[in-house]
């Protein structure tokens, strides 16, 4: 038995690709982060950012939290904040799927929607303006070391353990970059030859959860030296692979996971041998109001 839902964050399963890849000597495993209680990889960072800030005495039950989010981080923060009895206000673009907005509100968060044309950058600007009023505390997932440290302490060690130290390549979509920064740091300490592959959208593509940031908005936690290679995927590739993941592997996930899978399969085509781990960062049920799974 578990004392709290928080005990279920992490230790997500690794599942081997059976139909998408059949290449002797090369194995592809999916790390199913949708199995976290809040439904995404962001549960790890949300818990570590909030708990660490509380432990340091930076926030308490009288603190009003504010954060800009494109979706998954907001859901995770809303869940964790609710467990600790904290007030949180989440800012996101108005074109975010209704499932995400409703889930955040279900966990007790206040949600503010900003102009869709301004994207997540506009949400970040709005949150920072409100924080400067002095009434709010921003966790700042884009510049908070507790974000990537969550993955250094959990995601990386889990992959190393569950592959029996045989992982050769790690593939992750890049948004806030916390997942890839923390996992890379840990895995490189264990074996510097492990290759870290980041996934970004092509210039003309919009893929929720994956970004190619303008210089002014580049996450401060991002260190390009921790990524050996960056692969770009198109919106079409990400959509089609999300559908194939569901149909062929029984893995129901969002578009960023489809993008990461497309990049991972491209990588596997190049390899003669290896064990590739790719992050499936969330569940597909928070995209049902979009056209992701329409045919």
TrEMBL record:
Q: Which residues form the Tryptophan synthase beta chain-like PALP domain?
A: 7-282
Q: Which reaction does it catalyse?
A: O-acetyl-L-serine + hydrogen sulfide = L-cysteine + acetate
Q: Which CDD domains match?
A: CBS_like (cd01561)
| Pathway(s) annotated for this protein in UniProt | Amino-acid biosynthesis; L-cysteine biosynthesis; L-cysteine from L-serine: step 2/2
State the organism named in the record: Christiangramia sediminis
Q: Which family does it belong to?
A: Belongs to the cysteine synthase/cystathionine beta-synthase family.
Q: What is this protein called?
A: Cysteine synthase
Binding, pyridoxal 5'-phosphate: 72, 175-179, 256
Could you tell me which Pfam families the record lists for this protein?
PALP
Broad EC category: transferase
**Mind listing the UniProt keywords for this protein, alphabetically?**
Amino-acid biosynthesis, Cysteine biosynthesis, Pyridoxal phosphate, Transferase
Picking any one GO molecular function of the record gives: cysteine synthase activity
**Gene (name only):** cysM
Under PANTHER family, the record lists:
CYSTATHIONINE BETA-SYNTHASE (PTHR10314)
Q: Which cofactor does it need?
A: pyridoxal 5'-phosphate
The record's section on InterPro entries has: Cys_synth (IPR005856), Cys_Synth/Cystath_Beta-Synth (IPR050214), CysM (IPR005858), P-phosphate_BS (IPR001216), TrpB-like_PALP (IPR001926), TrpB-like_PALP_sf (IPR036052)
The upper taxonomy is: Bacteria, Pseudomonadati, Bacteroidota, Flavobacteriia, Flavobacteriales
SUPFAM superfamilies (alphabetical): Tryptophan synthase beta subunit-like PLP-dependent enzymes (SSF53686)
Lineage top rank: taxon: Bacteria
Modification N6-(pyridoxal phosphate)lysine occurs at: 42
Among NCBIfam families, the record links this protein to: cysKM, cysM, PRK11761.1
């Amino acid at each position: 038995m578990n004392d709290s839902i928080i005990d279920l964050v992490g230790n997500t399963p690794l599942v081997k690709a059976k139909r998408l890849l059949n290449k002797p000597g090369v194995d592809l495993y999916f790390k199913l982060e949708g199995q976290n209680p809040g439904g995404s990889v962001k549960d790890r960072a949300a818990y570590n950012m909030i708990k660490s800030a509380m432990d340091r005495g930076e926030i308490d039950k009288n603190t009003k939290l504010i954060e800009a989010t494109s979706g998954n981080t907001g859901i995770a923060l809303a869940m964790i904040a609710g467990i600790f009895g904290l007030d949180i206000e989440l800012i996101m673009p108005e074109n975010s799927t209704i499932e995400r907005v409703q889930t955040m509100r279900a966990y007790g968060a206040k949600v503010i929607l900003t102009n869709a044309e301004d994207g997540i950058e506009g949400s970040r600007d709005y949150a920072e303006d409100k924080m400067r009023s002095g009434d709010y505390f921003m966790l700042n997932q884009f510049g908070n070391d507790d974000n990537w440290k969550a993955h250094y302490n959990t995601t990386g060690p889990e992959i190393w353990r569950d592959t029996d130290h045989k992982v050769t390549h790690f593939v992750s979509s890049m948004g806030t970059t916390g997942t890839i920064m923390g996992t890379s740091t840990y895995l490189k300490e264990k074996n510097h030859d492990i290759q870290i592959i980041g996934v970004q959208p092509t210039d003309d593509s919009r893929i929720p959860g994956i970004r190619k940031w303008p210089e002014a908005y580049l996450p401060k936690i991002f260190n390009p030296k921790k990524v050996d290679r960056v692969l770009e995927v198109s919106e079409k590739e990400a959509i089609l692979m999300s559908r194939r993941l569901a149909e062929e592997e029984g893995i129901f996930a969002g578009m960023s996971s489809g993008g990461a899978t497309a990049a991972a399969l491209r990588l596997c085509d190049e390899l003669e041998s290896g064990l590739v781990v790719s992050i499936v960062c969330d569940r597909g049920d928070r995209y049902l109001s979009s056209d992701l799974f329409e045919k």
